[in-house]
Amino acid sequence: xxxxxxxxxxxxxxxxxxxxxxAFSQHTLAKIRLIDGSKIRGIIVENKIDVYIKVLILxxxxxxxxxxxxxxxxxxxxxxxxxxxxxTGYFNETSAGLIFLKSSEFSGVxxxxxxxxxxxxxxxxxxxxxxxxxxDRYGETSALPIYVSGKGDIGSGRVVPVLNINxxxxxxxxxxxxxxWTDIDDVKGGMYWEIGSGIKIKGINSALMFYLAYKHxxxxxxxxxNWWNESSSILVEKxxxxxxxxxxxxxx
Length: 252
Known about the structure:
Porin, 1 helix, mainly beta, 64% strand, 6-stranded antiparallel β-sheet, 2 domains, 10% helix, single chain
């Protein structure tokens, strides 16, 4: 085979590759599944990311589909799947995590656990409010906070920062009454508030959340003191539990 023949074969091979690539880029087959359950198959004519996609079906009919109606679609060169974007109606967020606290000014930092759930309504885009209830452990005592919660998403991507604030009241009770110097006879609850931030990772029908927060719980610890006198005396200690909380949860 002459050098001229080899050159012509290489040249036409390159031109065929370029033509095929151009053809596929202009006529990309796609399979689309809409949120309402219907399916569309066709050729992508135009794809404006996160806005709309224009598809040629039945060789002559073109349809324009907005991204908020698409659950997923697949093509040769592009894949897309919608993530939860609910910003109206009812919501639930449930989380669990660890409280890092000092049970007294003489003790070291230890970890206990927390569990919370909030149910409410979307107020407007990115902002929601609701009523929450939780269970927090503070060393020898436990609390049941009941509160109003406000939450906000910053941005509209798949991964967004979130802000959270809770305000309410928490009754408390004694977890354990054993102590070397005094016995905790009773505990009274008080004001509860929490402020924090984190991230939300949106999934198909739910979202995963990670929070880092500052939690404040007021309470009164009541002791029966048997150390100095044979007769018992009552000691009341006001205590503010100030804690750092790390929690993860799920939003629906």
